[in-house]
Every structure is written in structure tokens, then in C-alpha cells.
Amino acid sequence: MTAQAPGADRPRVVLVDDHAMFRAGVRSEIGAAVDIVAEASGTAEAVALIVATQPDVVLLDVHLPDGGGPAVLRGAQAGAPDVRYLALSVSDAAEDVIAVIRAGAQGYVTKSISGPDLIDAVRRVADGDVVFSPRLAGFVLDAFRESGIPGQPAAAAARGGSDAVPETDLDRLTPREQEVMRLLARGYSYREIAGQLFISIKTVETHASNVLRKLQLSSRHQLTRWASDRRIV
Amino acid sequence: MFMVQACGAGSGNGIGEHPDSSRVRAPRGPGFFLMPPELHPRDDDAIMTAPTAASTLTEATTPRLYRSVSGRRIGGVAAGLADHLGLPPRRVRLAFVVLALASGLGILLYAAFWIVLTPSPLGPKESQRRTMGGNVVALAALAVALFADAVTHPVGWWFTPSALAFFGGALIWRQASETDRDRWRRLSKSSIGAGLTDSTGWLRLLAGVVLVVTGAVLVLAKAGLSQAGVGLSVVLVTSIGLALITGPWWVRLVAELSQERRERIRSEERAELAARLHDSVLQTLALIQRNSGSPREVTRLARSQERQLRALLYDDGPASGQFAEALRSAAGEVEDSYAVSIDVVIVGDHEMQPRLETVVAAARESMINAAKHSQSATASLYAEVDAASVAVFVRDRGVGFEPEAVGEDRHGVRGSIIGRMQRQRGTAIVRSSPGHGTEIELRMELP
Q1: Which pTM value belongs to this model?
Q2: What is the rounded CA–CA span in Å between residue A114 and residue A116?
Q3: Can you point out the beta strands (E) in A105-207?
Q4: Buried b / exposed e along B199-212 (16+ C-beta atoms within 10 A)
Q5: Shortest Cα distance from B393 to chain A (angstroms)?
């Protein structure tokens, strides 16, 4: 546990993973650019540390003993509501990814991500943006594929809160969002997407945030079933 | 790159447990091999340790209802009940005897308990010899009581022979040694179970049925219709007697067989898994140690092994003949041959057909092109498939090139990718500029 003076662009990070070897690898790759304030290997330990340290970003392994990533998200919700989460996964199983995103993670990347890319992703999550890996973008496109089928309106609107968009909009992607997701799936960065679509990076980020929100809030009953039916790797 | 994650795959997720399905999903098992068990104490571990944990747990409070092996006089039912209820065994036995005098109710109850309850796992065979004599005495006493009962309170002339047949059968079964029972089980398997699979078994079964029917016809013909009623009831009583004798035996037989089968399947799967892990993982690890000086080779080995493990752990069998599968295996081959890693994302799927073969071949060439010329260690492949069309994008972030400046000698891009797609009325677009990597876009309409 290092406790350096937090700089303006040095996000404070809690690292949650049950493999000590993996934590060591992450620390050596990104430790120079971020402050890793705590490490946890289990669900209960992670919740306690997150509440105690109130980090900017939690790097969260999807697979943990006793409950996994979603359990950490739910457990720390009350004690640390402002903390943001970036999910790291190795399995890429759709049901895990969808579960952790729907539990509130701001992004998802695979563990094979390079060090600089991971630092970039952590910074982006710390700034309030969302992070899509190509794979997650592919999941989204797949899950929202037969768009136009309306979901169950009531539940989605209720959970959408005060700024709820009309319920059917939660269940389908706009053409622009589809374009953004396609380019993300093709491996384009936000900057490259902005150039390709002649829009600002900020607009790309907004589209991505909206898609993530749809993924979290959509009541499409197919979404969960779709995820559990699929075991892509 | 963090290359330590391959073992993390074993952690699986506890969703969808199918212990009974003949093809138990492989990911549940390998926790044993890939992970220290204390980190992932779930799934199969839990299933296998649960019974013992439960029995030691309940023992502390109320003993579970078992047939008591150690304290038994006949079948251990009374002793087991006494244990469970906390009564003296003698009183329970007395209750059974009294109930037995009430038209044999106690005997039926006893038999039912004997069938249903499993022998207690504790105190195995310590006192078998001691109770052997006791068994016979107790049975004889019961038989006498039964006779007396039948004589004084006639329930029906059929009762005594049935009861006797039942106890005879029970006695034979109870007194048989474990090896005898095993032999009987095997015999019954080869006569009845095998009867449905091999031809001699069928013949035997057929002969038996013919004999029984002939016998019945002969009896009816000889005795005449007036006597048929008596004949039929004799047959009926005998059949009931047989059913009574063999009933419990069959119930147990079926239960034990299915238990045995489950365990065999499980151990076979584990053996197969161990074999496959040995063939692939251990060999790869050995190779990695030998090649530790060459990062490229290590990456290639690790990547290839990762792909194999994922296929083993997560795939429910290869979806052969599907476009996505063909594309993935093409990417895998390129990874293996050129020591690059290719991220594959595929949305949708379609059955394989000749025009899709073309797309796969062109995609493979595109990936090879990226691997050979981009000077980047990674590339990505994205494919989107729907019923009417397919689009594939192969992208790298390597050095890139000037598409116009490519000479006629570069057959890779011009012939194997663009020409190939155009011949099948598809399109291939190459976007590249020096320093910004390359993207090849393949599109094909489907008939």
C-alpha cells in the first residue's frame, strides 16, 4: 500500500483481484501513473477498504470468491456512493460482463489490455467517462440487435428516475450510437471515432455514456437471457 | 501485457450447475487443477463434501434417521428409529410387534422403513457376526407370531404365504455377503439391462416370456374355465409374492446403479480433463520455460494455450459449420503461425456457405498481412453478420503504408484479398496511411 500525495492527475485507485500475481503485474504497469491506495483480494475486504479509502476508481475483477464484482459494487454503494468502477475480466463471458455493468460499473476492459491503455482507461473513468472495450461494444451491438422490439415500459421508466427518457428509447440504440459502437468494436479510439464521424470527442463520450446507461437500465427482457444464453470467450 | 490471466479462467462462475447431465460442463471441474482449492471452494468441491458436512452437523443435534447397522436385530429399523426419537430400542421393537399383531400393520411399516432408509454410515460392520444368530431367532419368532396371528385372526388365506415369501427373500438378501450382492447385481444387469442391447439377452427375454405364456395357457386348458379362477389367483399370488421379495431389492438396485453411474461419469471426466491438461498446459509451460529468452515465442505459446484452454473450459462443443467459428479458427491459426495476438469480436452468426468461405479466406489473408507487415504485435478483427450480409474489419495499429504505392508484386493484398472478394461480387477496401496503421474492410451480400 502506497500513500503518496495525491496529484491532480493521479487518480487514487483501489485494486481488487484475488490473484496476487495479477495485482503485482497491474501495480508495476500503472503504479507510476496512478496512486494505488489499497489492494483487496476478497469481496468483504474490498468493500471495507473502498469505504475506508474513498478512492477515485476501483479496478474490479469480475470474478472473486464469494459474490464477485457485482457483490462489491452493491456492498460499497451505501458507504462510498461517489466511487467509480472499472471492471477487469478474463473470462469475457457475456453474462459476467453484463452483470457487472448492470450493477453499476463505468466500463469494462479485458485483462490483456496494455499498461498505457489501462492507465488511459482509469483516467477516463476517474473523469466520469465510460470505457468500452471492443468486446463490450460487440456485446452491446449483439444484445441490442433486433432493435425496434419495445421492452416493458413501466419498470424502465421507474428506474430511469427523473430524467428518464421515453421507455422505448432505453431499449434500442440510435443510428449514431450504433455507429459509435461499431467503430469501438473495430478497435477505434474515441479520437479516431470523432475524426471518422466528424463530431467532437465530447460527443463521442456522450454517446458512449448513453449506451452504457441503456445497458444498465434497459428492461429488455432479452438482455439477461441473451447474456446467459451466450458463453463467448 | 499481463499474461497471468490464463489460470483465472478456472474461477468460472457458479451459474448453471448441472451435476446430473452426462456432459457436465467442464469449467466446473478444473478448479481442482488450476486453482488452489481454498481460493475457490465451490461447485464440485461443495457437492462432494456436503453430505459428510451435513451428517456431522446434524449428529450434534438430533441423529438422522438411518437404519442402525451396529444395533440391529433384523434390519436395524427399530434401532435406528430409537436413536432418532431418543427412545429405548426395546420399546420401539415392542411397538412394531404389537402393530404386527394388528393384521400385520407393523410388518408392513417395518418393511416400508427398511426399503426407504439407508444404512447408517457410522459404525460399519463391527457387530455383524454377533447379530447373525439374533437375526434368525428374531425372524423365527416373528414368523411364529405371524402364524399365530393368521390362525387366530384370519386376514385372508393369501396373507401367510406372502409374508413368508417376503421374509424368506428379505433374509436371503440380508444375509448375503457384499460380494454375493455384487454378483447378483451384475447378473441382473446382464440379463435384464443387457436384454435391451445385445441379441442373446433379447433371445433370453423372449424365451422367458414364451414359457410363461405357454404355462398359463396349459394350465387354463387342462383345468378348464371353471378352475381358471383358482389358477389365476395362484399365479397372481405368486407374482405378488415375487414382487414383494424383489421389490426392495429393485429399488435399491436402481438407486445404487444411478449413484454409481454418476460417480463413474464424474471420475471419467476428471481423468479426461487431467489428461488434456497434461497434454496441453504442462507441455506448453515446459516449452515456455525453454523459450524464456524469446518474448515473441513465449507470447505465441501463451496465446495459443490460452485459446485452447478457453475452448476447453467455455465451449459447449464446437459450433462447426458456422461462420463465426471458421473466422475464429482462422484467427487462431494466424496467431499461431505469426506470433501475433488478434482480438476477435463477432456479432451475429450465419451458417457456412461457399461465399462465406471466400470471406474467411480473405479475412485470413488480411490478418496475415497485418501480422507480416504492420510490425505491430496485435491486430483486431471485427465481424458483423446478419441474414443478408456480412462485414469484416481487420485492423492493426502498425506502420501502415501508401495503398497507391503498393507495387504489382504485392499479391497478398491485391490478389488474395481484393481480387478474391470481387470474384464473388463482394468488396474489399484497404485504408492505410503511413504511421496510422491499416484497416481492411470486407463486405459480402448473402443470397
Answers
A1: 0.54
A2: 6
A3: 107-110, 131-132
A4: eebeebeeeeeeee
A5: 7
